[in-house]
């Protein structure tokens, strides 16, 4: 049953529920439904939290990711940038909460054919990920894959292969050789 946002009993817990729905829809490629949920979440959060509250970073980041999936690049870029700004204000630039937004920013730049900016964002994400995360972390996979895509696009196939191989090795270490996890990494290596 849909929540009525103007009722006084709506709380931040409701916002988290909308975030969970948004994540669910995103996982099943229902980005429009996910965007509706994350917008409801953000509406609630903005009624309860200051505009640069750290919890808003995750919300803006997810909404930016959904916008990018829907090819709404300008909106996606703005939200991911807002996420990075909130983390910077609250936790500093050298914080692991910057890894995912940096990887998403790189994705945006690759769509826009801005490969130097994309590479810089992925390298920053990779550096932070290697500093703060365990060696076998999915965000490091995202950073390596993004760098592989950039190197491949720029014709540096040896570096692309090295980045893809690193992503493949991490995926294999995390998930084993289950086909649905490993296919994307093998496809990158094969192209």
How would you explain this protein's 3D organization?
This protein has 191 residues and is mainly alpha-helical. It has 9 helices and no strands. Helix 2 runs antiparallel to helix 3 (55-69) and helix 3 (55-69) runs parallel beside helix 5.
Layout: helices, strands, pairs:
Elements (H helix, E strand, L loop, with lengths): L11 H16 L3 H18 L6 H15 L3 H19 L7 H13 L3 H18 L5 H16 L3 H19 L3 H12 L1
Mean pLDDT: 88
Shape: globular
The percent range for helix content is: over 70%
Proportion of residues in β-strands = under 5%
Biggest beta sheet attributes = none
Q: Low-confidence stretches at least 5 residues in length (pLDDT < 50)? A: none
What is the number of helical segments per DSSP (H or I, 4+ residues)?
A: 9
**Through-space gap between termini:** 46 Å
Helix-strand pattern: HHHHHHHHH
Using DSSP, what is the number of strands?
Answer: 0
């Amino acid at each position: 049953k849909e929540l009525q946002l103007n009722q006084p009993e709506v709380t931040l817990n409701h916002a988290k529920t909308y975030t969970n729905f948004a994540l669910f829809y995103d996982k099943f490629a229902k980005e429009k439904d996910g965007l509706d949920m994350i917008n409801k979440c953000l509406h609630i959060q903005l009624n309860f939290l200051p505009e640069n509250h750290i919890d808003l970073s995750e919300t803006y980041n997810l909404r930016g990711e959904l916008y990018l999936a829907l090819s709404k690049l300008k909106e996606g870029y703005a939200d991911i940038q807002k996420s990075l700004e909130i983390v910077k204000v609250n936790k500093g630039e050298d914080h692991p909460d910057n890894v995912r937004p940096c990887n998403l920013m790189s994705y945006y730049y690759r769509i826009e054919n801005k490969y130097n900016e994309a590479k810089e964002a992925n390298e920053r994400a990779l550096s932070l990920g290697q500093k703060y995360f365990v060696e076998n972390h999915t965000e490091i996979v995202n950073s390596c894959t993004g760098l592989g895509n950039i190197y491949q696009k720029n014709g540096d196939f040896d570096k692309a292969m090295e980045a893809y191989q690193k992503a493949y090795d991490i995926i294999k270490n995390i998930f084993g050789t289950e086909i649905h996890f490993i296919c994307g990494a093998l496809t990158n290596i094969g192209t």
